[in-house]
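Recall that a protein's primary structure is simply its ordered list of amino acids. Everything else, from secondary elements to tertiary packing, is in principle encoded there. The following example makes that idea concrete.
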Amino acid sequence: MTPKNLGARTHPKVREAYDLVKRGHMDRREFVRVAALLGLSASAAYALAGLPSPAWAHSHLPFPRDDPNAKAGGILRVGMEVQKAYDPAKFNWSEMGNQTRHVIEYLAMTGPDNVTRPMLAVGWEASDDLKVWTFKIRQGVMWHNGEELVADHIVWNVQRWLDPALGAGGIVGLSTFAAMREDTGKRDDKGNPVMAAIDGVIEAVDRYTVRFNLKKPVLSVPEDCYNYPTAIVHPTFKAPFSDNPIGTGAFTMTELKVGERCLLKRVEKTTDGKAFKYWGGKVYLDEIHYFNFDDDGQLTALAAGDVDAIYEFGIDQMELAKSLPGQIVAAKTAQTLACRMQVDRKPFDDIRVRRAIVMSCDNTAIKALVYPDGGSVGENHLVGDMHPEYFKLPPLKRDVAGAKKLLGEAGYSDGLELTIDVGNTNGPWQQTVCEMMRDQLKEAGIKLDINVIPASEFWEIWDKTAFGAVAWTHRPLGTMVLSLAYRTGLPWNETHFASPEFDAALDDAEATLDVAQRRAKMEKVEKILQDNALMVQAIFRPVYTMTTEKVHGYPAHPAQYHQFNKVWMS
C-alpha cells in the first residue's frame, strides 16, 4: 500500500506520519499506533508500514480471531488480589478494572501491540488540528437490561466523569478529559481551582455519533478511552457497581467478596428475560473466577492446582515457575515504583532535602539487585525507553558528599530521620527497593524507617502519605502518566507539584506528531521533573504471569489488563 491508495478522508497527519517514516523520523510501529489513533484500520496501518500484521488486525472486532481448535465451555480460575468494585470511574488499580472488564466495556481497546482499535465505537475521526474527535458508536450493542447502547449513554458517562463532585482523578488527569474542563473561579478546601466541564464539550450528534470538542490538541484520545476507569456504565448506575452490574460485556458479576473471590458468569438472558446477544463474537468461557491471592502467593496457588492462571509472579520466583508445567508469559512494561515526596509537607518542602535524598541513591544499583534480568533503569521522571517520546538525559550520578552538603544547608547537619510508607501492592520487591534506599541514604546521614502497610490499607492512603512508595502501571505513552501524575492541581498529583512551566512544556509535547520533535521537547519535560527532585524512581519492571497447559490464548498485556474474550480451556 502507498499513500496514493489512501482515501480522501484519511487524516492529513496520517500522511504526515508516513512521510516521517520515510525520512527516518518515526519508527514503523509508532506509525501503526498513530495511524490507528487517527482512524486508519489496523490492517491498513500495518500494510502501509510494511509490517506483518497479526491475524486479528484484519477483523472488524478488537479481539483476536477465533482459534479453529477452540472448545466452548469451562471455568477459568485466576489468582489475583480481589478488590472492591464500588465506582468504576474512581478505580485506581488495574485489578479493579480486571474484575469488571468483561462486564462493562470501553470505547476503544489498546492491544498488547500498543495499537488502539475501536471497541464500543466502530471508528473515529479527528479534525486536522486534533481538537475535535468524532466517534461512531457500534450499532446493535446490547445492555444486559435489553436496551441498545446509544450516543446519549456515552455523553452521560463523560459528563459524569467531568463533574467535580465525583472526584474521578484517574480520568480528569488524562489529557483528553483535562482538555474538556475549565476553571470555575471557585476553590476547594485545599485552595485548588475547581474545574468543571466546558459547555458543549461533549455532544450526541445523532443516535450513534458522539463528538468531543477539546480546548487544545490531543493525539491520545482513543488511548485515553481505554484507561481502566473509563469503562462505560449504564445511565441507571448507582454505586456500588457490584450490587447492580449492568454492562455490555459477555459476562456479569454474580458475586464479589473483597479479599476472597469475584465470580463472573456468561450472560444468556437480559434482566427482562429476553435472549442476550453479545456484540463481540464468540466467547468460549462459561465463567471467570478470581480468587484472592497476594502477589507472593499466586504462583504457589498455581502449583497447587487452586487456579489455572495468575495475575503475576515476581522475579524471585522465576526458578519455581520454570519448574512447573505450563506457560510463562512475559511483557516489557512501563510499570514502575515512585518513591515520591509531597513538596508541600515538611521536610520535603525544602528542595535541598529532596535533592539530597535523590543524590544519595543509585538507581542502577537498585535495579541490578531487584531486577537483574529484564526491565530498565528509571531516571526519576517516569518516562522510559519503551515510550516512543523518551529523551535520554545524561545519566544520574550518585553524590553522597553533595547530599551531605545540601542537608547541612537545609539545617540538618546532624542528620535527618524519615519514614517511607510502602504497601507491596504488586510484590515484596517494592519493600526491597525501600531497603536499598535505606542503606544508601544512611551514608549521607539520613535514617530511613520503612513502614510496611497491608496493601488494602495502602490503597486508601497512597495519595495522602508525605513519603510513599507508589506503583504506577504501564501506559503506552509517557505523556499519559505525566499528565495524570504531575499537572497542577489534578486529583492524582500525589506529590502536589505545581509548575506552569511544566504544564506548558507537556502541552507542547503532547500536541506534536513528529516523534523526533516530540522527543526533543520531552527533554525539557523530563528535566523539570528531575531538577525538582520529586522522587526516587529506580526501576521499570518486566511483568511475568503464568498459566497451566490447559489454558489457551491467554494474552500478555503490558498494563496487565485482562481481556479473555478468546481464551479457552482444553
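The chain is about 30% helix and 20% strand. The chain has a mean pLDDT of 91.
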